[in-house]
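> call design_seq(struct)
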């Protein structure tokens, strides 16, 4: 597994006891990084996503959905660009 510099992994979010609480629900989910995946520099992985085996997340990507094994994704939000061998 390779994780680049300045990668943010968000496993939970909570606005606390504020007026905005009625608009934003509390989220607490695992982020799973499987065998031999690569996460590019400055990427963000949101709560509940899984990055599959041998997958690549391009630099500065926002991963909002799980990445299947042997996929290359990048962008905001990250989208599948190609399948690896």
């Amino acid at each position: 597994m390779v994780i680049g510099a300045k990668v943010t992994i968000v496993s939970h979010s909570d606005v606390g006891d504020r007026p905005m609480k009625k608009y934003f629900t509390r989220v607490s989910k695992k982020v799973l990084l499987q065998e031999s995946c690569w996460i590019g520099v400055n990427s963000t992985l949101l709560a509940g996503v899984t990055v599959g085996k041998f997958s690549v997340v391009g630099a500065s990507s926002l991963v909002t959905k799980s990445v299947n094994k042997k996929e290359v994704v990048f962008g905001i939000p990250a989208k599948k660009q190609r399948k690896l061998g």
